Each structure stands twice: as structure tokens, then as C-alpha cells.
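Before a computer can learn anything about folding, someone has to put a protein's shape into writing. The outcome of that step, for a single protein, is printed below:
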Amino acid sequence: MFTVKKLIVNLNHVEMTPLFNLIEKTEDGIVIREMSINSWKIQTVKGRIFDSRELLAASAKLPKSIPFPDMFFGYNSLTVQHNNGFKCSFSALGALSHVGIESDLKVSMSSDWINSRYYLFLKIRKSEADHLKIVKPYDWTFTTRYSGDFEWDDLEDMVSVQDMNMDLLKRHDPILFYESQSLYEDELGDNGCSELSVRIRVMPEFFLILQRFFLRIDNVLFRIFDTRILHEWKNNYVMKEISHLEMPYDDALKILRQERLCNQAEGEDLSHLSDSQYISSIMDKQKHEIFFSTQKYNII
């Protein structure tokens, strides 16, 4: 079934806001939102978690045998495309295809848990597969260095680091369009959490995409991979910024206690340690950056 829920055409709420069209429609429970602004088309697709039948079909598209996370939002995607052909997209399947076959991280009982997940994925009875002696058949943390799929050749590495216009990004201008989606999530056998999400906001002068991979392994570490895509309408290029941050779990817990966000006397509230925004903010303050790069796509 296909329905159009809302149609907004050529809104111009404030001075200097570019004209744009926005259409939202639903097809078989999948919500599709499309925005046309300046020379750009933005599309977001949002749906439910894949069921077993859909997971089986999707597994054939993966380059290697990787079990799926607990929650795999295979319908979810974000695409931005310029009239000249430049295209950037983010998808759950694209991200999972960049998960490695090994992990550099290990916790107690992780091998047994990994093997049980792998046997289930391959539909092999344990009694028949014991001789395989699989130790680390895939990266059990689902860490992905995926930074989107791009269709454009004119890529330029920024030799001198050109930061994104933070003053512009911090301004409280009207939000013309916003969408946030999960791509996949896993609780890592109650050892923490692994989450990948992507969101976009469109403002009168720019659009900004943030894809974030967030990993928490209890009593071990935190890891964040961020990809930011920024385009200011006045510019003839798109900026891409990639950063990798890590922090020991105990360091974050110490800061949490120092800020009195958890009170040991009343029983510790560790909910902030599941908040990627909070962890990212203390990583920035503590200079826990491991890798940083900025690239520029010339689109005109």
C-alpha cells in the first residue's frame, strides 16, 4: 500500500531561506522523505528491523560471512545527490560490509559467545562443527570504518587541515529538514553495546550529515568513529571529515564520578555511559583522538 502523508511545497519561512519542496510518503510501512533544495535532492528511507527471511536475502549481498547484529535496520538509508551527478549515501548493508573478520578486543567468554552466534548464522549444529575450532570468525564488536558510498571522482585531500565552519554549525537557525536513523545495534552478549546511526539536518545555509559508530565494552573501552559531511550552499565543494576516538572505560567512569553524574552512595547511575554524545564530549575535552582526516569533493 502506498500513501502520501504530507506535501509541503516551496516554503519560505524566513528571509534568505532557499525555496524547497518536501514530500513524505509511506509504502508498506516504509517511510520515505524527499527534499529538493537548490540543486540537491535529499532522500531518507526508514523502516523496521529485518526479519529472518530478509536477513537471509541480505546475507547473499555481503562480501563475507558475518552474522547480523541483534537489530539490523536494513531498510534505513540516507542519500544526497547533486544535479551534476555527485551522490553520497549511507546504508546498513553498506556499513556491515566493512566489518572486519577479526577484532582487536576481547572480553571474558567472548570466544564462546562469538562461536555460538556464528554457528547459528551458518545453521550448523554444534556437534557437527566442533572440529572447525572457530576462535574469531568475525569482529564481534561490529566495528565498521564505513564512511558512506560516494559516486564522484574529484576528491582532494586537505593538505592543511581546514576545519568545518563551527560558528555556522552552532548558530540557532531554523531547521528546514531533520532525520535520524539507526542502521544497526547489538548488545554484545550483555558486554556493552555497538550502535551505528546516521542523521541529517538541513538549514537555510547548509546541510550537515553525521554518521556515528559508537562502541561501549564494559570495563574495557569506548570507541567512536564519526563521519561528517558538510555543504554550504554558497560553496562549490562538499567537505568530508572523519575522526576516530577511543578512551579506556575506567577513564570515562572516573570523569563521570568527578562530575557527580553518578552517586556511589545512592547506587551508581551509569546511564550516561550509554550516551554517545556525552562520551564524545569528554573524549574531545581529554584529547583522545586517534585519527583525523578532512577531504574535499569539488562538485562544480
Observations:
- The longest helix spans residues 110-122.
- Confidence is low (pLDDT under 50) at residues 6-14, 118-136.
- The first strand starts at residue 2 and ends at 9.
